[in-house]
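Supplementary Text 2. Reproducibility record for the structural model of the 207-residue chain.

All settings were left at their defaults, and a single model was retained for analysis rather than an ensemble. We include the record here because the model underlies the residue-level annotations in Supplementary Table 4.
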Amino acid sequence: MKCHALKMCALKVGISLLFVGTMAITTLAGQSAFAAPCAGLGTTFDTTCSVHLSTYFPAGALAFSSDANATMPTNGSIAGTNLFQFDTTVFDDRGSASGWKMQAASTGLVSPATGSPAIPLSLTGITPGTASGASCGNTGPSFDGTVTTPLTATASTYVRLTPSNTTAFHCSDPFTSLGSYIISAGSPAGTYQGDITLTLVNTATGA
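Retained model, structure tokens:
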């Protein structure tokens, strides 16, 4: 899944009380992150394989990729607090120190029986990964602390980063978003589903 600056992409959050959902991870170009490497299977020089090439244009772009599905509790949710997480990587090729911020919005998880009331979702923090890229000098993005708990339909900034190098190019800034939700005892059995909409904003300043 590829999302450009000032555009939004939906992060599907599916919860099942009866079975475990699968997690699909995509790279910036949209292909599977678990694609098999190119390797010859035969014993002669006639064995061939294909190498895939992918790039984005133009340089100077700000984009990000994120898990299509969040990692959910193993064997379904329990009554009480449940945790989820998803991985995101921001690709910054602007060559400036203007930075970026990520916003999130959600109306919560929908009950399979009545569709309401929705179960609120909360983002509780992030785990920064190791930033990479020529002369980026980043220490990784930081949790903003201003995200509403629970998330609402109005987008809130929850993570941001300001590059330490004003001429950095090809920066890759990965992080894992952490969240939680609470299912009350006696809630109907079935699959609870909802979305978190992520928006990458082309500045680190402001709300």
